[in-house]
Design goal:
Number of helices: 4
CATH class: Alpha Beta
Number of domains: 1
Order of helices and strands: EHEHEEHEEEH
Oligomer: single chain
Number of strands: 7
Largest sheet: 7 strands, mixed
Helix content: 10-25%
Strand order of the largest sheet: 1-7-6-2-5-4-3
Structural class: alpha/beta
Radius of gyration: 15 Å
Distance between the termini: 15 Å
Length: 160
């Protein structure tokens, strides 16, 4: 049985199909709610990862990037899903009008791109998905910040 205390898993040199496979594997664990922060430079695959995860969860509609709307929300089998892209945010105070606290339900999945742009204004992460360019592929590191996140990483330990 994998060690449940795992707090980071590195998966280097992933092409897009491998990146979406990781997102699909994670999707099987987040059905009761979670907070996932997506971190990395422009074009690193944050939206690709989020889109893959949402499609596996059963979002049947087109999964749009929330770059301009800041937030796209979905509902699947009682799970409220909020995908945020904070790239255009200059300060945490700019998020007040979104009413994020009002969106938090018992079963809510938060996917937050660029969380570092609004410290303290977004829910704290269970898991941080770190992406970076690696030639034609991506390097991925998953960092668990809660017990729930560490439980999920136990599933990925075999890939490491």
């Amino acid at each position: 049985m994998p060690d449940k205390a795992v707090s980071s898993v590195a998966l280097p040199d992933l092409d897009e199909p491998a990146l979406t496979a990781v997102a699909a594997r994670l999707a099987s664990r987040v059905g009761t709610g979670a907070v996932i922060h997506l971190v990395g430079p422009l074009g690193a695959g944050k939206t690709t990862f989020a889109r893959a995860l949402l499609q596996v969860l059963g979002v049947g509609e087109r999964v749009k990037s929330p770059t301009y709307s800041l937030i796209e929300s979905y509902s699947v089998d009682g799970l409220a899903i909020h995908h945020l892209d904070l790239y255009r945010i200059a300060a945490s105070e700019e998020l007040e009008w979104l009413g994020l606290a009002d969106l938090d339900q018992a079963a809510t999945l938060w996917l937050i791109e660029w969380p570092e742009r609004a410290p303290g204004a977004v829910p704290p992460a269970d898991l941080v998905v770190n992406l970076k360019h690696a030639e034609a592929a991506r390097d991925l590191r998953l960092d668990a910040l809660t017990d729930r996140g560490r439980d999920w990483l136990a599933d990925f330990q075999v890939l490491n």
